[in-house]
Predict the 3D structure of the following.
Amino acid sequence: MIRNGIDLDQLNEFSDQLISSPNAAAVCIQIHNRWQGGYAVTSSTDSLIVGEASVPRNHSVQLDLPAQLGGSDTGPTPNELMLMALGSCVAHRFVEQAGVRGVNVSDFELTCEGHIDLRGALDVAGIRPGLSDVHVRLDVRSNADDILLYELLAAAVHMSPIADSLANVVEIQASVRPRV
């Protein structure tokens, strides 16, 4: 059955497979970032490793800062890209959960608004360099009542890997390989 563009039979089959074989659910994501000069960086994908299978990927995006912050404005900022990732991930989970719960969605937009104090990136004492808060707003046209829509959005945020990564501590390890 297809609902909201999601093949629910395929989703259920895939979910059952992941639950019965946890090793198949392990994903390794590798992104390459190449400096283009100034603040411009091109980020690109190669492949995902899902379980033991390699899934070819070939996408790239140019990131930069606006001219007002010293960049060339050739692409979104890393923070904008992070909010784009959050919004699209929550949108995926929302439409999926709506379909699973029998809700037909005819149209929706999801807006993410984040706040940051740029002094943190300058290492000003007591100010974090990251986002201080994010607000996610859903504007939706569907056959569901307000209470169910709120429950679906809450479930989408809860089930979003990006929202989880932003809300919880993620261990980051850094290493350098000098080039000759």
Summary: Residues 76-168 form a domain with the GMP Synthetase; Chain A, domain 3 fold (CATH 3.30.300.20). The chain has four helices and eight strands. Residues 78-100 form the longest helix (23 residues).
